[in-house]
Amino acid sequence: MSGSTALHQRSLLDPDTTFPLLPPLLGGDPTHSTAEVQYPLDIGYDYDSITAEDFMQPALPGLHRWQPLLPPLAPEVDLAVGGTPLLRMDPLAEFTGSAGEIWVKDESRNPTWSHKDRLNAVAVSAAVAVRAPGVVVASSGNHGASAAAHAARAGLPCVVVTSRGLPPGMAALMCAYGALVLETDTDGRWPLLREIVDRYAFHSVSSTTPVPTGHPFGPEGYKTISYEIFQQLGQQAPDAVFVPTGYGELLFGVAKGFRELAAVGLCDVPKLYACEPGALAPLATALEAGAEWARVPSAPTDAWSIACTVTGLRAVAPVQASAGAALRITEDSLHATAGAMARCGLWPELSAAAGVAGLRDVVRSGAEVPKRAVCIMTSSGMKIPSPYASEPVAFTGDWDVVDGYLDGVAAPVG
């Protein structure tokens, strides 16, 4: 089977409520949403025609290999997304305290160095399918850079609406792809995005609703992370997956991927741990209250890529279904973890270290340690300043500097 088996959009609140596959309904479920809370849409497939063989693809770049399990992909959007390495990271055992296997799914190997490429490969394909004149996104960084790259590949203009104070490296990346980057106050991003949609009929690849519903097609791209992990672990699922979490689109996609694998009898669904900045943690707040959504006050955090004040059903549902948890990761833990990962050869953006930090917190809590844990590293630290990196040292002939660095590791010869 080579073509998409996607049938329709369906309500995440009530899967029996369905809508045509196209156009994507960017305002969420129009039947059940209210002025107070908006509900996301999911994509339904002809699952009767899908077999275990459809999942038996090599974990290589290019989402087209999973086309039966995804909405239609436009060839002109293809940037060979995915196929990222799954790395056995025993050097992190001492730092985390885990006696189990530690694996890191390194999403920084994608074309724009983050997991957002999987979302935009699908969402920008939808923009092409509906013949949109352009793409618009509200983003603090990774999502905007990825949308700009995929729009450029498709020959579409892209507008990125972002907050003031964007890191220079991230701004340069967006602009290099030809995007128009509009800076505004953080609270002004969404009204500006909606006005661009209304004025120019641009296709939004980010959420347009107060309670986040996101692009209905986008999280489908994230399912492929689970398919790849399954293949890379020798056609097995891990016991737990630790996911850096903002609005929960990545979390939802990873959960759905494992549910689909389980539905054809290939594996069980692992526990899912959503790893949020503890300064905010709307998902943990919602789960503790037994609520479908929650909003929390804004608070400063260095993990700005996952700094969200509101969460919705797309994040709540997968944690509840997997018997996992939402973890409140402290700033100190994020910084310590990012530094530890870098010393092991991985350079994460601070937000991208939340998964490994979550594993460390679970071990320290005294809970059962997963025998095999996968931590998703969402993005590279190369796009933003790294507070855990040391500065270059000018060599002036003083070998004590080198000797000090090598103390206990190597000794001068002779």
How far apart, in Å, are the first and last alpha carbons?
A: 67 Å
**CATH level-1 class of the domain at 86-113 and 217-383:** Alpha Beta
CATH architecture title of the domain at 86-113 and 217-383: 3-Layer(aba) Sandwich
Reported for the largest beta sheet, the result is: 6 strands, mixed
Secondary-structure-derived class? alpha/beta
Describe the 3D structure.
The protein has about 425 residues and is α/β, with parallel strands linked by helices. The protein has a domain at about 85-115 and about 215-385: Rossmann fold (3-Layer(aba) Sandwich). It contains twelve helices and 15 strands. It has a six-stranded mixed β-sheet with strand order 4-5-15-10-11-14, with helices on both faces. It has a four-stranded parallel β-sheet with strand order 8-7-6-9, with helices on both faces. α3 (about 140-155) packs parallel to α4 (about 170-175).
Give the secondary structure arrangement, pairings included.
Layout: E1 6-11, E2 18-20, E3 41-45, E4 86-88, H1 93-96, E5 101-106, H2 116-129, E6 135-138, H3 142-154, E7 158-163, H4 168-176, E8 180-184, H5 189-200, E9 203-204, H6 218-232, E10 240-244, H7 249-263, E11 271-277, H8 282-289, E12 294-295, E13 310-311, H9 313-322, E14 325-329, H10 331-343, H11 354-364, E15 372-377, H12 400-405
Parallel strand pairs: 5-15, 6-7, 6-9, 7-8, 10-11, 10-15, 11-14
Antiparallel strand pairs: 1-2, 1-3, 4-5, 12-13
